[in-house]
## 1
Amino acid sequence: MNGFVVVRLLGGAADAVAPPPSYRRLQDADPVLRLSMGPTPDGDDVVAEAGPVRRGRGPDRDVPGPATDEHFTADAEACFGRRLACADVLYARRPRSLAAAVRWLAEVRARQPACGLAAAPVADGGWLAVSGSTRGATSTVLAAAVPPDQPLLASCLHAWVVCGYSLAELEHVRPAGGGVMAAVPLAPGGGRPRGW
C-alpha cells in the first residue's frame, strides 16, 4: 500500500470501544485494520483504526475522530525515488529473520533519515519497528498476532509515536473487535491492484 493513510486512536479498553457508525461503511469501502495497543502510561489500551485516504471523497475521505494521524506510507521494497524520500512510514512486505530485520531497518533508516517510522515483519511472527526518535530497532518483536500481509500495522505504530508514546512502552499490539481485516484488496483477476 503506497499513499496517504489515516489512523484514529480511540481511548479505553479495546473490548469497550464499539466501532463508530462510519466504521462499517469504511470497512466495506476500503481495507481497514483495527488493533488494540497499549497500555498507555495511564494503564489504558487504545484502539487504532487505519485505512487509506482516497481522492475525491470529500469530507468522508478519512476516518473521523480524535487523535487522527494522516501520513504518507510506502513499500520500501517496491518504491524508489521521491516516494521513499517523502514517506513518513516505510515498511517491508517480505518476512525476514530477526537479525535480517534489524539490519534492514538500520539500512532503511540510514538511507531515509526523514522517515518517521519503519517496520519489517519477522519470519517467526510479529514485526520489528524503529521510529525517528530512536536510533535502533525495538529490542522485542511487536504485534506477534498481526500477520506480515498487514502493512497498515506500521501506520498504527506511527500514530502511537506521534501521540507521544514510545515503541518501547508497547506491551501488546493485537487485533481488536472484528480482528485483522484484509489490508491489501485483491484486484478483479487476483493479485494486488496498482499502487498497492
Note: Strands lie at 3-10, 33-38, 46-52, 68-75, 89-91, 117-121, 127-131, 172-175.
## 2
Amino acid sequence: MGGRVTPRPAKIPDGIWHVSVESLVDFERVHWNERTQLEKAAHVISILIKISLLILTLIIFLLTLALLSTAFQLVGGRGIGSLIKNSPIIKNPICAACVGMLVTVVLQSSSTLSSVLVAMVAGHLLKVREAIPILMGSELGASFMNAFIGLGQSGDRAQFRRAYAAVALGDIYNFLCFFILLPLEIFFEGLRHSFASPIQRLSKLMVSPIRISHKSTQEIPSLTVLTDPLLDRIIQVDFDALDDALEDDLMEPDSVWQESFIERCINLTTLEEFTFCSHTHLFAYSTLDDTSIAVILLIASIISLILTTLIIVKLIQMLLEGKLAIVLKEWLDKKFPSPFRWATNYLIMLLSCFLVMIIQSSNVIQSALTPLVGMGVVPLERLFPLILGSGIGASFTGILTAFSADPGQLKE
C-alpha cells in the first residue's frame, strides 16, 4: 500500500478574476423590443429614480463629511492651539502617523484631513515636516472604508473574492508608501540639521517658482456650493472667531474665549431670545453648549456615513445590471491602437483624477469601484490606474485649501 497522497490545492479558475461580457447578460430579462410601452416607460422612470437617489445620496455623503469636520472643530476649538504645538505625540513621526490613521478612520475622508492639515500649517499650528507623517497615516486610514465596503458583497463568493482583491490592491499601494517613505523621513529627521527630508525637499522645489502676491486670494468654488446651503440649515458656526481663538490660544495659552462659536438667537447666560435674529439653523435657539452639540452632530454623522455608504453600493449594483454593465465593461476593455496602447492606462488615470477633482472625495470613487470590481464590470488591470488617478485628484482638495488661505502663507 502506498503512502497517502497529499491533494494539491485547487487552482482558482481564471473566470473568477475575469468576467466575460456574456456572464453579465441576464437571459431571463425581457428584451427591450418585447416590452410594452407601459413597461418601457416604467423601466425608464425606475432608472431615473435610481440615478436621482444616487446623486442625492452622494450629496448627503458629502454633507456628512462636512458635518464631521465642523463637529470636530467645535470639539477641539478650545485650547487646541497650544495642545497641538506642545504635543509630544505630534512631534513623534510614528505616533503622528497613527493619529492621522485614526482621524481618517473616524472622518472617513483623507481629503478632509489633508485640508485641515494645510490650514494648520498655514496658521503656524504645524510645521511641514510634522504634517508629512500624519498624511502618510491618513492613507492607511482610508483603507478601512474600502474593507468595510467589500463586506457588502460577502453573499457571493466570487464577487467577494474580486472585491477584496480590489481592496488589497489599494492597501498594498498605501502600505508600500508607508513602510518605505516613512522610515526615510524618520532617518532624515535625525539629520535635519544637515539634510532636509526627501518629501520636504521635494515640496520646497515644487513651490519655489510661486511668486507670493499680497492681494487677497479668492476661494476657488467647488461642490461645497451644493452642501453649504444644507449645512447652514443644520448649524452655523462663526469660523472667523474660531480661527481667532486658535491663534490667540497659540500665542497666549491662558486666553479667554467667547461664550459660544455657534451662531445663536439666544443669550446663554440670561436665556433671553434676541428680538431680531437672522439665524435659522436647528441649534439657533438651543441652550446646549458647543461640546454637547458637537457630540450630537458626531453621532448623527457617523450613523449617516454608514447608511449612505451602504445605499451607494446598493444603488450602483442596481444601476449596473444588464445593458449598462455590458457597455461599461466593453468600454474599459478597449485599448488604443498598437503604437499608443501604453497611453490607455494614462487616460483612465487622468479621467479618475478629473472625477475626484470634481467630487473632492476620493472615498466616494474608491467606494464605488470596490463593488464594480466585485461585479466584474471593472477589471483588476484597470483598477490600479483608477486608484492612482483618485490619489492624485485627492491632493487637489489640499491645493484648493492652500489657495484659499492667506497669500503670505501660500508656500507653506
Note: The chain has one domain: 36-207+222-403.
## 3
Amino acid sequence: MDGTFEGLRFDYKADLFMKKPIALIGCMDLFSQRVQRTLSAEFPQNDIKFFDTLSAARTYAGDAGPMSRFEMVLIDAPTFMDLMLDGTLSSTTEDGAKLAIAYENDAVHEHLLDRYREAISKHGISLLPMHTTLEAWLCMLGLVGNGVQFVPASAALQSAHTASRAMASYNTQDENDEPLPRLTKRESEVLRAIAGGKPNKLIAVDLEISEHTVKLHIHRVISKLGVTNRTEAAAFYFKNPEAYS
C-alpha cells in the first residue's frame, strides 16, 4: 500500500511499520547467509544486520547506545564470553534489546548454564539451540521477540543434573591447586576458534595459516588439555575462558 503527501510518495509498510533491526553478532558459519535469508523472510519488518564483532555492532549503533538500535540481538557463545570479560553485559541488556545466545553444541549450553547461570537469569538472556528443526528454532525466536526468556527444558535439566558434578570438579582443582595447561598464543587462538564452532578451513583463513598447520595446532591443544576431541576442548575453554583469552 502506498500514498502521497505534498508530492512525496512513500510505502506505508516500509516507512510506518518497520521495526528496529535484528542483529546477528559472531561467526558467519553460525549466522550463515541461509540463516539471514530465513530471518528476513520470517521477520519482514526488521532489517537483518550481521556483524562479526561486538565493536562493529557498537559502531553501527553509534550514540544511540551499544544495543538500543536493535529489536533483538543474537550472539554466539564466544561473543557472550567477550561481554562477560569486558564487563559490558549489564549495559548491553539495559539498552532494551532482547538478547539470545545461539549455539550448535550441547556441551556449550551445559557449560554456559553451569558457569553463568546467574548472569543469564538476571539479564533475561535466552538460549537458542541451532541444531534443531527450522520450524522449532523460529518458534523459539518468536518467543524471544515477544519478550519471553527462552531456555530449553533439556538444557536446564541437564545443567541441574551436572551442577554438583561440575562444582566438585572445580573444588577438586582448587584444593589441588593444579595450574591450568599452558598454551601458546596461537594455540589459544585456535582453542577459541574451536569453541566458536569454526571449521578448520575458516580457522586457517582467520589466522592466515594452512589447514595442515591448523590440524597440528588442534592436535597439540587436545594433547595439552588432556581431552579427546574438539567438543571436550570447547567445553574446557568455556570452563576457563579467562585463561585463554
Note: The chain has two domains: 2-158, 179-244.
## 4
Amino acid sequence: MWGEAGIQTDATIRADTIARLHRGSKGRQGLMVQAKKIALFVIVVFVLYTIITSPARAADLVQIGFEGVSSAARGVGDFMSELVN
C-alpha cells in the first residue's frame, strides 16, 4: 500500500477512489429508496382521499379494473386453448 519512502502507490490510490465511488452509489440508492417511499405514500393518500370523497366513483373504477383484468385473463385463456388445438 505505502511504498518504500512512505509514498502512496497507485494501487492504494485506485482502491481509495473505488471505495469513495462505491460509497457514493450507496448514497444515490438510498435516495432512490426514499423517493420510492414518498411516491408510494402520495399514491396511498390519493387513493384514500378519492375513496373517502367519492365512494361511488371509486367503486365504479374498481369494477372497471376488475372487468379489465377478467377480460385479459379470458383472452389469455382463449389464446392458450387455440395453441393447444
Note: The chain has two helices and no strands.
